Amino acid sequence: MHSLCLLLLLLPLTLTLTPGLGRAQPGPLSPQAVALLRALGLSEPPAPRQPRPVPPLLWRLFRKSQEKLAAAKETQEPEGAEGPEQAQPCHVEELGVPGNIVRLVPDRGGSVQLEEPALPPLCAEKPLFFNLSALAPEEQPTLVRLELHLGPAGAQGPPGPGWELSLSLAPGPQLWGRQAHWHHRQLLLTQPLPPGRDTIHLDLLDLGPVGASPLPRNLSLVLEILHGSGGDGNGTEAACASLGRSLEASLLVVTLHPQQCRPVARRRRAVAPAAPAPDRVCRPHQLYVSFRDVGWHDWIIAPRGFMANYCRGSCPFPLATQLNSVNHAILQSLMHSVAPAQTPLPCCIPIRLSPISVLFYDNGDNVVLRHYEDMVVDECGCR
């Protein structure tokens, strides 16, 4: 509910000031904007320099999260009943892990000039560097998957038997290309290069040195492909050159932020249809939040906006059942009827809120899918 309140406070400011809240706007950000960005896990409004295409996996995860939230709102359960969402809150079903933040971090390793020419059986060598500084200390990694895209050379398969893939943990990029870099590696795994596959997935949390300690702010790896003794020299040389040109890598990181993850609230099953509330009585009113109006459309990919809603209306005496009142509010309303100068009427406030999922670019130009609690008002009540 805290994030929604900040957004509602922010809307009047952003709708009267142009051109929004992006970095292009002169002057400092308002305190409300700073507070909301912090609630969203950002230090400042991102300004993507070269926006990367959204990976198909993250689009699928976003659409499935939208369907899951919509289904949860439609499900009618008795009070206190537990369903799948309550048993497994913040669960990324397609990946089979808990989490409410999904990031796809690109490799920023670039190319390395070796001090000495590579000797057989080394076929290709590539440094991998992933900036993980956007992860908050409270986030618990549940999946760290290295995705290697070998391109056409991988799809065709190695030209002979005995080809291997080797992955090592290495010092940071300040030592790349220097002798110290190559002598301080820690071997993580060696496995055969599978034939006929253009993509390889490696779960780094299963590897001791990575999974046994907190993730570093900068993860530096070295990938090596070693060729076997089979095959002719020309075929091996051509395959190595093709792999060196087409090899790309990215890191899929799923984390769980426990403070931002709760079971999806289920709509209570009504005993009997409630009579329509009068227009001035406490109830939800529609409020559509457009990220373009807020000035964040350049870094929020989806949704374009959402129906946040708000609560407004009176809580008259006597309180009716459709006003979702608790015993304390009923007593307060009764005391107001006796001594109105000493006791105010109950207030109309949100009593049930639901989350949304947002797909956006973060401050490091990474594509992020994040689940935010308490962003949509579903029910109001007198409290």
From TrEMBL:
This is TGF-beta family profile domain-containing protein. The gene is LOC100078431. Residues 266-383 form the TGF-beta family profile domain. Belongs to the TGF-beta family. GO terms for cellular component: extracellular space. Residues 1-16 form the signal peptide. Its main location: secreted. Transmembrane segments: none annotated. SMART domains: TGFB. Keywords: Disulfide bond, Glycoprotein, Growth factor, Secreted, Signal. The keyword DNA-binding does not apply. It is found in: Secreted. One of its GO terms (biological process) is BMP signaling pathway. GO terms for molecular function: cytokine activity; growth factor activity.
